[in-house]
Specification:
This protein is mainly β and 616 residues long. The chain is built from eleven helices and 40 strands. Helix 4 packs antiparallel against helix 5. The chain starts with 21 loop residues before the first strand and ends in a 15-residue tail after the last strand.
Length: 616
């Protein structure tokens, strides 16, 4: 084999590969000077047959999450995947892959949280148990032992039908059949949104989770949102009976946690969350777990210390108790964690602990989720291990506030009226979660008529209403009965009677809003009037509200007989807490409203509106 060399610099010479595999050295001799140079050992391996390709050119994942890399096989069932470049990235994973299911592909799960932690066999997994993946790098290899999580950036992914030889992927890289990239982006802890569900809806989601998988459970949650069974709210109804209370669902949006949760090797996301809440990963400080979840009481009252419920402490050595209270559903596509909380089970545990007050009507708690894992928080790298305050300031938190109120309901009419016919409807409203099931019973007041009628599995609708249908065709006008809601979070009774003609329910309509379109200055006091008329056929009491920008700023209770009307006045409504701009303002009842536009201008002179101007 010969080549040319002009006496200085480098020379590049192509040499045909030997016909047999093995380890070789190459001796180069310069003809004119007889100067010789011998290379290091070169390994010659047998080239793999067939080819491997990547299903897409690049895969994007948040720092700490798990990348799902699909490798497709053609005319082979084995090969090599190389992620990273030791020289350029100071990290390289040499992975042997085998299509054991013989379906032409392997879904390789690459854990960017574990990568570089010198725990090779946990870094990569497969979705199909018939397939297999193995990291071949020697554990002692420095590129596998990183102090911190993999940096953000682009990492080459090379695939080849040629096998790794020992811990070296040189032959595979020289025979690569496709190349792509793994793009690692910064992780984040973004938001917490609260939802409420009935205990039956929560049980439905849990059943889907147990029988199928998390993807199906996420679909069940989304379907619940669409149907109104899962509602966005910050208020939870607490049972006043033995029936189950509403459940809170905390939708935590955070990227980069998947790898840490997966590293626990837990059976499901609920167990994985418990592990990271109680792992005592950073023992130099008291708040030392990877994650934290707390409920802190707001406005406990005069001379009362706010109660803090630290979930990590309450369930530190109690996975079973934790699983009774919490259920976690992970939405991988959107980096959402739906954390269901069973208030009744939590209250039972708080009562058994003896050192906590149970959550009750009127309580308000801020729920806070915190990421404390140093590997996931780059800001911690610059914090001294002895500076606890600075250490905790580097944590990432999201929170939301929940109010608790006693479950209650009422019939729309009191007394309840029905006709002496089939298909008679008894209606009402409640503050419990849509999807809750309740029973309605009507029971005669007289031994002479002596009837009991039950409507079971009456479902609360998304607007908080419920409706039960009964057959009164065998009853007579003037028969009386008691209507009762039972077998649910609350109980309520009302007198009832069979009548010739059923009166229309009360309906409070609003008119004659005055003033309507208003221009005022921030700080001015407003006085608003409107007429409220009961156009229905029954007397009722409703709360009438004056709202600005969707928020109730004043209210009063109004009782009207059928056909009655009154003028409501909201006097000296303060606008100093509002910003300049346009708002919808108006008077609202349960049945109707009248609105107009309120335009607030910036006073610019610090005026507090003390002149009493109403802006009209």
């Amino acid at each position: 084999m010969t080549g040319t060399f002009d006496g200085s610099g480098d020379a590049s010479i192509d040499i045909a590969a030997p016909s047999e595999t093995g380890n070789y050295t190459v001796l180069l001799t310069h003809d004119n000077t007889d100067i010789s140079e011998q290379t290091g050992e070169v390994q010659v391996s047998e080239a793999g047959e067939g080819s491997l390709t990547l299903s897409q050119g690049s895969y994007t994942v948040a720092q700490g999450d798990v990348a799902n890399i699909t490798v497709e096989f053609s005319e082979t069932t084995t090969g090599t995947v190389v992620i990273g470049n030791a020289e350029d990235d100071n990290y390289q994973a040499n992975i042997t892959v085998e299509d054991g299911s013989d379906d032409g592909e392997v879904n390789l799960l690459f854990n960017t949280y574990l990568a570089g932690q010198n725990s090779n066999q946990d870094i990569v997994e497969v979705t199909d148990s018939d397939d297999s993946v193995t990291i071949e790098n020697d554990n002692a290899n420095s590129v596998q032992d990183l102090a911190n999580i993999l940096d953000t950036g682009d990492y080459d992914i090379s695939v080849s039908p040629t096998a790794v030889s020992g811990s070296s992927a040189a032959a595979a890289l020289n025979d690569e059949s496709d190349i792509g990239s793994l793009v690692i982006e910064e992780r984040s802890t973004d938001a917490m949104q609260l939802w409420r569900v009935s205990s039956s809806t929560a049980e439905d989601v849990e059943e889907v989770l147990d029988d199928e998988d998390e993807e199906a459970a996420v679909s069940a949650i989304v379907d619940g949102v669409d149907s109104g069974a899962v509602t966005q709210t910050d208020t939870i109804a607490v049972s006043d009976t033995s029936a189950a209370s509403d459940e809170i669902v905390h939708q935590i949006t955070a990227s980069g946690l998947e790898g840490a949760l997966d590293s626990t090797n837990a059976d499901d996301s609920t167990e994985a969350l418990h592990t990271l809440l109680t792992d005592d990963a950073y023992s130099q400080f008291s708040d030392s777990d990877s994650l934290s979840l707390t409920l802190e009481e707001q406005d406990p009252g005069a001379n009362q210390e706010a109660q803090t419920i630290d979930v990590s402490s309450v369930y530190n050595n109690d996975l079973s108790g934790f699983e009774d209270v919490f259920t976690v559903v992970f939405d991988e596509e959107n980096n959402d964690y739906y954390v269901f909380l069973d208030t009744d089970e939590l209250n039972e545990d708080l009562g058994n602990a003896g050192s906590f007050d149970q959550i009750a009507d009127g309580d308000e708690y801020q729920v806070e989720f915190t990421v404390q894992n140093a590997r996931l928080l780059e800001n911690l790298e610059a914090v001294s291990d002895s500076d606890e305050d600075a250490y905790e300031d580097a944590f990432e938190s999201v929170n939301a506030t929940t109010s608790f109120e006693t479950a209650e309901g009422e019939f729309d009419a009191d007394p309840v009226e029905v006709g002496a016919a089939a298909e008679q409807t008894v209606t009402g409203t409640t503050n419990v979660a849509p999807g809750s099931e309740l029973g309605v019973r009507v029971r005669s007041d007289s031994a002479e008529t002596n009837f009991i009628k039950n409507a079971e599995s009456v479902v609360v609708q998304p607007d908080g209403t419920f409706s039960a249908t009964f057959d009164f065709s065998e009853q007579s006008v003037n028969d009386t009965f008691t209507a009762e809601v039972r077998n649910t979070l609350f109980t309520v009774e009302s007198d009832g009677s069979v009548v010739e003609s059923v009166s229309e329910p009360a309906a409070f309509e609003v008119s004659e809003l005055n003033p309507q379109d208003v221009e005022a200055t921030v700080g001015d006091a407003l006085t608003i009037t409107a007429t409220v008329e009961n156009t229905g056929g029954q007397e009722a009491t409703q709360t009438v509200e004056f709202r600005v920008g969707g928020d109730a700023v004043a209210s009063q209770d109004v009782t009207l007989e059928a056909g009655g009307s009154t003028t409501v006045e909201f006097a000296d409504v303060d606008t100093s807490g509002l910003d300049a701009g346009e708002y919808e303002h108006g008077v609202f009842t349960d049945d109707g409203s009248q609105t107009a536009t309120l335009t607030l201008e910036d006073g610019g002179d610090g005026s507090d509106g003390s002149d009493g101007s109403d802006g009209s």
